[in-house]
Amino acid sequence: MIKPALYILDWYIIRKFLGTFFFTIALIVSIAVVFDLSEKIDDFLENNAPLRKIIFDYYLNFIPYFAVLFSPLFTFITVIYFTSRMAYNTEIIAILSSGVSFHRLLVPYFISAFALTLFSFSLNNFVIPHANARKLIFEETYYHNSPKVVRDRNIHKQIEPGIFIYLESYNTISNSGRKFSMEKFEEGRLVSKLFADEIRWDSLISKWHLRNYYIRNYLGDNQALIRGQSADTVINLTPEEFRRRENAVEAMNLGELNRFIREQKLQGAPDIDRYLIDKHRRFSFPFSAFILTLIGVSVSSRKAKGGIGMQLGIGLLISFSYIVFMQFSSQFAISGSVSPFIAVWIPNVLFTIIAAFIYRLAPK
Fold first, then answer.
1. Measured between alpha carbons, how far is 181 from 156 in angstroms, rounded to an integer?
2. Radius of gyration of the chain from Cα atoms?
3. Which residues partner with 171 through β-bridges?
4. Which long-range contacts (CB under 8 A, 24 or more apart) does 225-234 make?
5. CB 295 within 8 A of CB 110
6. Statement: residue 137 has pLDDT above 90
7. Which of 180-184, 248-252, 296-300 has the lowest mean pLDDT?
8. Residue 268: phi, psi to the nearest 5?
9. How many angstroms separate the Cα of 347 from the Cα of each of 114, 180, 272, 323, 335?
10. What is the pLDDT of residues 63-115, one digit of tens each?
11. Which residues lie closer than 8 Å to 159 by C-beta, 6 or more apart?
12. pTM > 0.85
């Protein structure tokens, strides 16, 4: 007799959990869309943004990004709300009195949390990046004509193993750079060096055009010098490298992000930690559903005399604390104090300890 009752109870809680979660997302996202539209409507009209593109290229891609960004908050509010309602209606007392342990009561909660973790992870790594790519293109075209990041002064990077380039300045409008040099090393020894007064991208042939250049080859004790007025050459570099947006990683899926990080490490980019933070956060953020679910059940399973208001307030405080602490800990990695992996996972470790402590105090 007990097994069917438990089976029905599991599905009852799972339906309440997932149903309330997606209802909360729909409600909050609808409010966010209204506020966002009221803020940007003048820019859309000024830039003659078509209604079809506003709906399908911007807001249809804005919704999943916003939903996943605040999914820990939605998860926690969901658990707090419907569990405190169950406690207020003495459903929790009835369940525990029937012989179901508090530990067993958590099973359907964790099944739901696992489903939300997979949902968040899949969206974050495979769906949202493509949605963000369309959203960023829309923003660049119709919203303030958002400028791309231009690294236009003293550019120095490694483009291949042993090959380094330097540019005094680069213009993203004309796709041209001044005072270009490229050095090639073999076994730590400089073997050739190329100088050019100007380098310009030729989109018709997908090559770089050099003006007023010379190449110096170091062959043992001898040095060979080659001069020329103009030449076309192939370099492992494209104009996109110079006008990539700071938030370009948002438009990359997991595989693309891993390749991008490898390329940036090869080129000696100074802001690798920012990209690593984004990568590790794609794993740690979905995992937070388990932690916040355990805290939410433990906090809201006790019947409160004043109703569910106090429990909702505590829930909001804890969930906002988690989000703020996640942002705060990331700054340690950006400053170089700790590794990005540790900085991103510290909030989960800390709040797991908090969850275990609150669970011990929960009524059983």
1. 10
2. 28
3. 176
4. 232/202, 232/205, 232/207, 232/208, 233/207, 233/208, 234/207, 234/208
5. no
6. no
7. 248-252
8. 70, 35
9. 19, 45, 21, 9, 17
10. 888 888 888 888 888 898 888 888 888 888 888 888 888 888 899 999 999 99
11. 165, 235, 236, 237, 266, 267
12. no
pLDDT digits (tens, 9 = 90+) for 220-257: 666 778 888 888 888 888 887 776 655 677 788 888 88
What average pLDDT does range 319-341 have in this prediction?
76
Does the pLDDT value for residue 304 go beyond 70? no
Could you tell me the two tokens for 296? 């939410």
One DSSP character per residue, 105-151 reads HHHHHHHHHHHHHHHHHHIIIIIHHHHHHHHHHHHHHHSTTPPPP--
* Eight-state DSSP code of residue 234: -
End-to-end CA distance of the chain: 22
Q: Is the pLDDT of residue 333 over 80?
A: no
Distances (CA, A) of 176 to 32, 173, 197, 232: 41, 8, 11, 13
- What is the C-alpha to C-alpha distance for residues 352 and 261, in angstroms, rounded to an integer? 30
Edge to edge, the sheet with strand 163-171 lists: 153-160, 163-171, 176-186, 189-202, 207-219, 222-233
